[in-house]
Amino acid sequence: MLRDRTKTESALPSFFSGRKGAPSPQPQTRTSHGLEQFFASIHGEENLSLLDFAAASQENVSFITALGHRIYSNDVVQTMDETFGVDSNFLVNQSDPERAAAFLKETLNFSDENFGGALVWDTLQFLAPAMLEQTVEQLYRVLRPGAFVLAFFHAEEKMASAPLYSYRILSAKTMSLTPRGGTRPAQYFNNRSLEKLFQKFQSVKFFLTRDHLREVIVRR
Q1: Residue 98 pLDDT > 90, yes or no?
Q2: Distance CA 73, CA 28 (A)
Q3: In terms of DSSP bridges, do strands 143-154 and 115-121 run parallel, antiparallel, or are they unpaired?
């Protein structure tokens, strides 16, 4: 089921928006070892609450509830835009304590150890270092011990612009991706930096895809 505060995708201007007048983006389907590992990790579990950093979608709701779990969907990219602005000050504004607190309150204002897993997709790579550290700290807090996190990071160090997607779950190892613009990641992430980012967690596992996407499975 969906929680009351579930967000859907917004048509508001976005820091991540693509070119004006560009053709409507077409979804693509791909398999994901990370997604497969995530669902394998909760196999046999019952009545979990799962956190989804994507906008609410019927595909995600139907798949998660069919497994016997609950889903809380929140379009974190939309929250970034609303909190930090859609202009060139997007990264600078993340160092503003009031904006940072507002972002965390909107995104991760839950009780301790509330969730049995989290699908954060590609959102974390667009947060400035200090904001990212606070977000991961709060994510750790709201997850139960042993819970798993799925996150994506683009692996090209000199990438001028990383694409951003809307994610729809089609099966335990297949997803649909619809482009929703993109921008340069706030920093470059390699295996070592990701291990440092998630150092409080029990384990970090990587899957590097042919399209230079680093899929990361983290265990709380």
Answers
A1: yes
A2: 21
A3: parallel
- Pick among 2.60.120.10, 3.40.50.150, 1.10.357.10, 3.40.50.1820: CATH of 28-219: 3.40.50.150
Whole-number Å distance between alpha carbons of 163 and 30: 15
What per-residue string of b and e applies to 176-207 under the rule 16 or more CB within 10 Å gives b? bbebbbbbebbeebeeeebeebbeebeebebb
Q: What is the pTM of this model?
A: 0.87
The separation between the first and the last C-alpha atoms of the chain, rounded to the nearest angstrom, is 24
Domain spans in the chain, listed from the N-terminal domain onward: 28-219
Whose CA is closest to 115, among 145, 142, 146?
A: 142
pLDDT in tens, 22-56: 556 678 899 999 999 999 999 999 999 999 999 89
- Where would I find the beta strands (DSSP E) of the chain? 28-31, 49-52, 70-73, 115-121, 143-154, 162-171, 174-183, 203-208, 213-219
Q: How many helices (H) and strands (E) does the chain have?
A: 6, 9
pLDDT digit string (tens) for 153-190? 987 777 677 888 889 999 999 999 998 887 778 888 98
d(CA 180, CA 163): 8
CB atoms within 10 A of CB 158: 6
Higher local confidence (pLDDT), 19 or 152: 152
